[in-house]
Amino acid sequence: xxxxxxxxxxxxxxxxxxxxxxxxxxxxxxxxxxxxxxxxxxxxxxxxxxxxxxxxxxxxxxxxxxxxxxxxxxxxxxxxxxxxxxxxxxxxxxxxxxxxxxxxxxxxxxxxxxxxxxxxxxxxxxxxxxxxxxxxxxxxxxxxxxxxxxxxxxxxxxxxxxxxxxxxxxxxxxxxxxxxxxxxxxxxxxxxxxxxxxxxxxxxxxxxxxx
Length: 211
Prior knowledge:
There is one protein chain. The chain is of the alpha/beta class. It has two domains: 1-32, no CATH class; 33-206, 3-Layer(aba) Sandwich (Beta-carbonic Anhydrase, Chain A), CATH 3.40.1050. The protein has ten helices and five strands; from the N terminus they run H-H-E-H-E-H-E-H-H-H-H-H-E-E-H. Helix 3 links the parallel strand 1 (38-43) and strand 2. The longest helix has 21 residues, at 2-22. It is globular and about 55 Å long. Reversible hydration of carbon dioxide. Its EC number is 4.2.1.1. GO terms for molecular function: carbonate dehydratase activity; zinc ion binding.
């Protein structure tokens, strides 16, 4: 256990030394200010690190992760990150990224009680019920899981479009919102949806008056 723990510290020292070898001022410049162009809302799954799968470097992506990449209107953590990223960091893109084979999606499709996370997964169960005919027409569980992964990404992009901070930025054309799904079996990202098309599908009751 200690050996695996120390591996992380040793890895950090090696990485830091490599960066300084490339650029002696790397950390000094990095510590000055962050100006990320992207807000990443992704799954907590350890196999989907956004900087690694996109080839990004520290400082490029502002990150929020939770189980199954959810945008829930009562989640103050997510809403705080969202507002800070859009209003203060002025990110140009929000990327909502799910991944095929998502454990949160799989767990939402069974009847096992896991604990506190059940309250979180209920949001995905609601999406399942909403799309039950399409999902249960698929022949295998893997296909149902992966299709629900895709549908969930679309629904979460819609939830982003129901927030005032995103609506204002879209109206001002200072922000683009994208829905992606990452495939772990081939390592590739698949574009699913863009907010420019999604905002028109949001019911008017969710659209705020913008001064």
